[in-house]
Amino acid sequence: MTYLSHPTSLSAAEQFKELHQRVETEFRSRFGHVPAVVAAAPGRVNLIGEHIDYNHGFVLPMAIERYVIIAAAPCSDPSQEHATFYSSDLQETTDIPIRVSFEPTCSGWGRYLEGVIAGFVSGVCDVPAFEAVIGSNVPRGGGLSSSAALEVATATMLEGITDHQLEPLEKAILCQHAEHTFAGMPCGIMDQVSSVFGKPGELMLLDCISQEIQAVPFREEGVSVLITNSNVKHELIGGEYAERRRQCESALEKLGLLSWRDVTLRDLDSARTRLTNDELACGRHVVAEIARTLDAAEAFANGQWASVGELMYSSHESLQKDFRVSCAELDALVRIAREIGFEDGVYGARMTGGGFGGCIVTLVRSDRAKAVRERILTQYENETGVQGSAFTSRPAVGAHLIKRNAHDS
User: Fold this and answer.
1) Could you give the CA distance from residue 337 to residue 331 in angstroms, rounded to a whole number?
2) Is 191 a catalytic residue?
3) pLDDT tens digits, 270-289
4) The pLDDT of residue 4 is above 80
């Protein structure tokens, strides 16, 4: 399902309010009473540092102004051994067991919910039987972490419904484990951390070894982040994503080092005879991308937008040629943005997310954002025959409870 295929005149705050009202109205209509808890968690966009989280480098994401919202309340039958979730976007219902579980019994989107509930029950406290409605305006399949937003919103809702608060990092790790074990996706920690820790006016420079976050200010109103969805679907589970991860692990093992931070481009060149061509190329991307991410964080903090833009273009070229996770549609979008150029409001662009489709992220002058958006989408559709979609975002607030009254059913 694709969201935001058409431009909207609503502000981010108005879209959030509209989504919240839709979810609460659906809950009352479906279950006949008001929700006791309403939780929200955002998607994220990574500005630079792609495929670096699981390689223990640095990444530079921000939470985006697109959310998963869940309304929930304990059900009338406390002996029930499952929770009932209704997705208002998919118009599907699924029942999720509320017991300790070590492997998935559900299918599809239910696996993400089951993993979070199982982790909560095994490590925090029991969960009562409950009913819930989910709504989202995070584009799915676009590399903007709709799954992490769903997981983190579920965990935040469980905090509200049980009155048991998790430490923020503990919540992110619980959700990451759910995605590993129940959804079968070997993701790094970036997506869940971004959804939990997001703050307005800040990017997050995340150290993927220590899991410490350094706030990078991004309060310049004259510069915006334009996120353009190629609307080309990609499937990462068990496929190319996992293969790239294996190649990175194998290369590091052959180098005899514990961390990619200890590797230089000279080390890679010296080990050329011990590495496969694919391992060498993956390693080249990882080493260079770690350096680019640190440079970009400094440039963002100092308002050096042209420098950020060049680092973004270099990142995309590395993902395209060395890491081999781009595709023709993403390359076309980045090329179109680059052709628009600095004079017409574009500082830089790159693919974002796992790759093989999904989105690009473009740094633009705010006063030119609408014109840039329209030109990119028009030229992209003319060239590919695919209708893209796009929106701008500022750094957004992370997971939070909109409403909490765990004893009100």
Assistant:
1) 10
2) yes
3) 999 999 999 999 999 999 99
4) no
